[in-house]
Structure formats: structure tokens, C-alpha cells
Amino acid sequence: MVYSQNKIDWPVMAISGGLLLTFVIASVMNASLVGNIVDASFQFSATYFGAFWQVLMLLTFLIAIFIAFSKYGNVKLGNKENPELSTFKWISIIMCTLLAGGGVFWAAAEPMYHFITTPPMYGDVTAGTEEAVVPALTQSFLDWGFLAWAILGTLSAIVMMYGHFHKGMPLKPRTLLYPMFGEKIMKKSILGTFVDAFSIIAVAAGTIGPIGFLGLQAAYGMDALFGIPNTFLTQLLIIFGLIMIASISAVTGVHRGIQILSRFNVIFTFILILLVLLLGPGAFIFDSFIGSFGVYISDFFTNSLYRGDTEWLSFWTIFFWGWFIGYGPMMAIFISRISRGRTIRQLVTAVAIIAPIVTNFWFSVVGGSGIFYELQNAGSVSEPLETGGMPAAMIAIVQQIPFGTALAAAFLLVTVVFVATTSDSMSYTISMALTGGGDPSSGLRVFWAVIMGAVASVLLFIGEGTIDALQSFIVFTAVPVSLILLPMLWLAPRVAGTMAREQGLIHTKK
């Protein structure tokens, strides 16, 4: 049965939009109370779900790799013989959509944080020394590496593409549970409604946070570089420009706006990498990346399942796992939309292997440069980081490279486009989740792009602490979403086997 894919699911719209509106109104009325509630929910999530998330993330990656390089790897996804997009365009969109949060500022700051305070699993290494370089980058690789990417679109995308393109189910998060519940999860299903609503809330919160965060960071950067006052008006204008870009891109769809932005960002980022390697500490970056990646691989299982210092974990790895898990169902929809005609092996290789390695090298270029300059001149990066936060770290790093001001401006531009790409992709994806079809109306796409920008602006007006609260709220929203993703561990192999038999790749014994 093929379900209607052009009508808005108003119950899902009411629940997801209503809860976001409630969060904003409550923040306006009593920001400190909301902050306390969010902090408590954050601690609850990290305490009772942290270990579960670590196991879920690891198993998702391992099972995805197993499927991809088994006899199921040649399964064609999406009921289409040839891919709709070229490989470069396809990987560009994937990279830009998922890397926005770590695009520049986390890449600059996280390695430095771990360099000046060594992660507990490497507690015997003295912080701030040459010996601390590898542990700092290794931990950053873990937080933005194989596991982070695998949860965003491997097993879940396989199940989603089977449900939608092979069985006619709508492009909605509830389709992830179709192999388990059948068609009863689709119509007038309370479970289906809540699955869709919580998935939308999680990804909206996960996108609004970076939008607000970008307003703070870019305004700081413009003040430091060009003397433009870091005021709420500046932050508001930055978000307005971002949402204008995102809205135009979302309206033009995957094959024009989103694709053009993604290609621009990948090419521009590649140019920045070359400039940093040529003008900055290129040899140090390569040495650090290779050495740290080797340790990341050798300590992979130990670090992935580390439970020694749970308080430290909650503010680093568990926070990131909650953020990425929250994106999981909606990214399955988005990746399904752009991956028709790809094999399971191609999908898993692009999302869970190529993208993490590129991300880790990007962290080595930006964060590794910061560590190099910190070793040369103690405090040159760590002090701005401690006083001005992540945007200060990025600017402090880049300004120590020749043509630093121009490079810093370029880094700010690439960050704005990264977040714009994520904003338009997620407004597009939320619209797909509400209608169930691959081409939702332009008005609905723009509505969600504008709403996310407006919520970020209101939270910034209330105070910087509300953006921090929303960042923590992301972790709490991951609790129900992680329960949605858990069945993917056994549904994806089953679905892959079904498609392999349908496509004649394996034969059932009679």
C-alpha cells in the first residue's frame, strides 16, 4: 500500500511545534527555572542512558560495517538502478549537512581543551606537553569519528529506504519501525505520532542550538576582526542572513540550493585546508594526524566503552552522543532522499568511513594548528579559549598564520555556510517528516527555516544561558530517540537480507 505523501500531519505538527513553543515561553517567563529543569534532565540522561548510548553507538557502527562488507553489501537501495547524484555531489551534501556543529569552532576548541586538560583515559600524560598532543586529538577523533557518523545514517537509512522506496511507506521517522509493527504503525497510531514528534523535536533543538551558537560566535569574530560591536542586533542580523540563505536554498530543493551550497562549502574548505597546510604547521599537522589516528584505532574499543570518569564523560562524549542520536531518524530520512541507486556498501563507506576520516583530518588541521602554536607560545590559544570561548580560540589560531585576518574571515564565512546548509537540510527534512513525501511544499520548508531562526533569536534575546540550556536539552530529547534507533540493530540486517533475496543476490534454499 502506498500512503498519501502530500498532507501535513497536524497532530505531529501540534505536538512538536507546541513543545518547542512551550520551551520558548517558559524561558521568557523564568529562564533560571528552565535552566535548572534542563540541567536536571541532562544529568538524568547522562547517568541512566550514557552507558546504553555508548553500546548503541558502537554496535551500530560494527553491524553497519558487517552488513556493508558481507554478501548484502551489493544490495541496491531505493528501487533505482543508477544514482541520482554524482559521488562528489552526494558526499558533499552528506559532509556539509552533518558537520555544521563541528565545522570550525569545535574543531578549534575541543583538541585544545583536551590538550590543556588531558582526558582521564590518558591521565598519566602531563597536560600541555608534546606527549599530550596525541591524547588530545585521539579523544577529538572519537567524539567526531566513526561512531558519531554511523548513527546518523547507516542502519537507519537502510531500513528507511526499504520502507519508503520498496514498500511505499511515507518518509517519516515511524517508517523505521515498519519492519517490526507493519502498517499499523502508519495510520492513527499513537506510537507513530509520538515517534515522529519526538524525532522532529530532537532535530529542531539540535539545529536551533547551533544557529544561536553561530550568532554568538560570528558576532564575536566580527568584533575581533573588524571592530563591529558584538551586540544583540549584530547577532540578530547574522541569524537573519543565515535564515535567508537557508530559506532560499530549501525552496530550491536538494538538486539546486542544497547541492550548490554543499559544493561551495566543500571546495572552499578544501582551499582553506591547503592554505593552512602551506602557510601554517603542515608537517606537524600530518605527523599529529597519522600518529593520533593510529592510537585512535588501537584504543578504539577501550575508549568507546570507557566508563571511568562518568562526570567528565557527560560533558564530552555522552553530550555528543546525545546530540548525534537526536539527529538519527531525521538524518535517515535526508540520506534516504539523496541516496537512491546507491548500494549498501557505498552508503556505509561514505557515511561511516570516508566522512569520519575527513572530519578527523579537519580537526587535525584546525585544532592541531592551535596545539602547535600553544606549544610554541604557551597561552597564545588557551588563554583566549578560557576568556572568550570557542570563537576566540579559532581566531587566536588563525591569526598566528600569515594573512591571518583574511583567513579568519574566510573561516567565519565557511562556518556560516555550514550552519546554513544544515538549517536548510533540516527544514527540508522536517517538512518531509510532516508530509511523508520527498518533495514537500516550499512554504512548509521556509516556515521551518524561519521558525528555527526565530526561536534561536528569541533565546539569544533572553540571554546566552538559554542557548546553553537548549544545547543541554538536546541530550534529554535523545532519550526517546535512542529507543527508536535501538531496533535498527536487528531490523537493518533483516531488511538487508530481504532485499538481497528480492534482488537475486542470495538464494533461499528450497
What does this structure look like?
The protein is globular. α1 (about 10-30) packs parallel to α20 (about 440-460), α2 runs parallel beside α21 and α12 packs across α16. The protein has 22 helices and no strands. The model has no long low-confidence stretch (mean pLDDT about 90). The protein starts with 9 loop residues before the first helix and ends in an 8-residue tail after the last helix. Helices cover about 75% and strands about 0% of the residues. With about 500 residues, the chain is mostly helical.
Summary keywords:
510 residues; mainly alpha; 22 helices; 76% helix; 0% strand; globular
In short:
This protein is an all-alpha fold. It contains 22 helices and no strands.
